[in-house]
Amino acid sequence: MYTPAITGTGVFTPFNTITNAELVTAFNQYVDLYNSRHADSIAAGDLAAKEHSSEDFIVKASGIEQRYVMDKTGILDPEIMHPLLRQRSDDEPSLMAEMALDAANKALAQAGRTAADVGAVICAASNLERAYPAVAIEIQDLLKINGFAFDMNVACSSATFGIQAAADMIRAGSIRSALVVNPEICSAHLEWRDRDCHFIFGDVATATLIERAEDAKKPYFEIRSTRCATEFSNNIRNNNGFLRRSRPDGLADRRDMQFMQNGRKVFKEVLPLVADHIAAHMAEEGLQASDLKRLWLHQANKSMNDFIGRKVLGRTPEPHEQPNILQDYANTSSAGSIIAFSKYSSDLREGDKGLICSFGAGYSVGSVLVERHS
User: Fold this and answer.
1) Which of 171, 183, 214, 309 is the most exposed place for a label (fewest CB within 10 A)?
2) What are the CA-CA distances from residue 366 to residues 142, 327, 358 (Å)?
3) Quick check: is 156 catalytic?
4) Catalytic site residue from 156, 186, 197, 228
């Protein structure tokens, strides 16, 4: 048995940002157009008028202040309200692979490694650009990595599930190292015309290099253990896949083909699931709350993270104990906890322990317990 370790991480951040002020302006313009065009139906009671959004509403509901996106022009056009992403030819690198490549090279550089040192690639993301060929295999090809690659999807928990898969293979000795990449183009599956969710997501890509600890060339984080769990729920759902179909009347696409959630039920059901999961994981390792120096949580909602932090630590976490990147990046699905880890882990010292945790649709929850070694 070998000991797996995280030796490098990387984050690709898109160039474009959308502030809450920009988003609210575009959304309210769309609302005014919609209400004007459907004034007769609204007056007759056949349609409900849409409501304006506001910056205060967004911050109070989520803690988000801005988001990075691959395209902002389409999102901010009240006549379009979705990203305008160019259809690439089959001879060009896909957008997800291009994003992942940037993050992967940063992770390799941090670890002092090259692609020749990698044995496998796992592309773990909530919305893959295509069904096949696997995006992971394309990333493997672009990096010129020998070995194998595959895609996996566990929604917002994809990164931690991918880390567990890679860590298990390293423990067993079937590979020496793996890149787990998480390219998330969340803006493409968000319904930007829905007030309840139009502010939630942003785009990003992360990468995590996992190796045998004995091979690490620089300081690393030993993966002491991992724990994953799933429980079926329809409260977060997206029906947009290769069986996509229009409404029976052949008019507009169905609303359920984009991101949908029952926020109240998610909040009520997911929080105890995650808190209990983390508590059980720590108990298995014989750890107390005081043994954890840091929590790197899924960046979905500030109130959710605050609740989980209090349940795990038994008190309100200090900002450095539970860093948030949500205000800058918004919800980036599986990549959120890895962004937090990548940006807020280098200051930990020998023997310090922390926990990476993600959770989301499924329901799913994954946790990775790590220990710093210099």
Assistant:
1) 214
2) 29, 23, 5
3) yes
4) 156
